[in-house]
Amino acid sequence: MRAELVAGLLAPQPSTSPKFLYDALGSKLFEAICELPEYYPTRTEAAIFDAHLYDMARAIGRGSTLIDLGAGNCAKAARMFPSLQPLQYVPVDISVEFLRSAVDGLRQQFPQIRMTGIGMDFSTEMALPPAVRREKRLFFYPGSSIGNFTPDEAAGLLGRIRGACESDGGLLIGVDLVKDKPILDAAYDDGLGVTAAFNLNLLRHLNGLLDADFDVRDWRHVAFYNEDASRIEMHLEARRDLTVRWAGGERRFGQGERIHTENSYKYTRQGFLQMLERAGFGAVRTWSDAQGWFLVCHARV
Ligand code: AVJ
C-alpha cells in the first residue's frame, strides 16, 4: 500500500487511488455529500429503488443469495430484504470490521436470512468462500461505484461478476448517466465545500499512512466534468511551490501542479447495456428517473 501510494505521488502525472479518500472522516464526509442538494446520485437512485422495489423483486424472484459489493453500513440492501426475501445475505467490503456491527444489527432484525460478511477487495478478484451459496446469486452494486473504474476495468469487473454466477445468477447495479456539464460540475464542487473537504481530507489520511507532511491549506480542490472522457475528474492543486516530505522520500510540486485523486465515469444507457452484453450477461431490465439522470439495471446471466 505504501509502495503503491509513493509510486503514484512520484509519477510524472501524480495520482492516488480513490480508495484512499475513505478513512473514518472521509467516510463521514462522503455521507454528508450524499445529503447535499447538488449531489443528485444518491437521492435519485433511492427514489428509483423506492418506486420500483416490488417490480424489481418480481423480476429477480425470491430466495436469492444477495451479494452486496461495497456494502458499507448495509442500509441499501437491507431496504430490499422485505420485498426480495433473500435466503442468504453476503455483504462484501474491504474492511470486515466496518461490516460487523451493521451485520449484527441486521441478524436481530432478519433472523431468517443467513448472513455471511466478507472482507475482500473485489476490484482485483472475486474469490468467494464456500460458505456462499452458489444458487441464485444476485450481485448488488449500487451507488454508481462502478464509475470509479475506467471502462476497461469496469468491463473486467462485470466479467468477473458474470463468472461468479451460475446459470440462475444476476446483477442489480446502479449507474450514473451522462448529463449536462453544469449539473455534473456542481455535484462534485458543491457550494458548501463538503466535496472539497472530502478531497482535501485525503492529504490528512496520507500524512497518517506515509508519515508525510502535507499541509491541507497549501492545496485546492479542483473537480470538473471532462466531456471527452465522459468522466468527472477530481484533483488537488498546489496553491504555491512546495515540497512534501514523507518517511523515505519527498517530491516538489510547482504552483498549479495537481494530484489526480478520483475519476467518476458517466455512461449512456446504450453504452452501459453494451458493456453488460460484452461481459456475458443476457436479458436486462432497466429502471430510471423521469429526468433520465440515473439508471438501475437487472441483468440476468
Ligand atoms: C462513491 C464513487 C459513487 O463518484 O459520485 C462523490 C464518490 N466523489 N463525490 C461518485 C464521490 C466525490 C462517488 N462514488
TrEMBL record:
It holds the Pfam family Methyltransf_33. The gene is egtD. PANTHER family: ERGOTHIONEINE BIOSYNTHESIS PROTEIN 1. It comes from Noviherbaspirillum album. The keyword Coiled coil does not apply. One of its GO terms (molecular function) is L-histidine N(alpha)-methyltransferase activity. InterPro entries: EgtD, EgtD_Methyltrsf_superfamily, MeTrfase_dom, MeTrfase_EgtD-like, SAM-dependent_MTases_sf. One of its GO terms (biological process) is methylation. Its EC number is 2.1.1.44. The keyword Transferase applies. Keywords: Methyltransferase, Transferase. This is L-histidine N(Alpha)-methyltransferase.
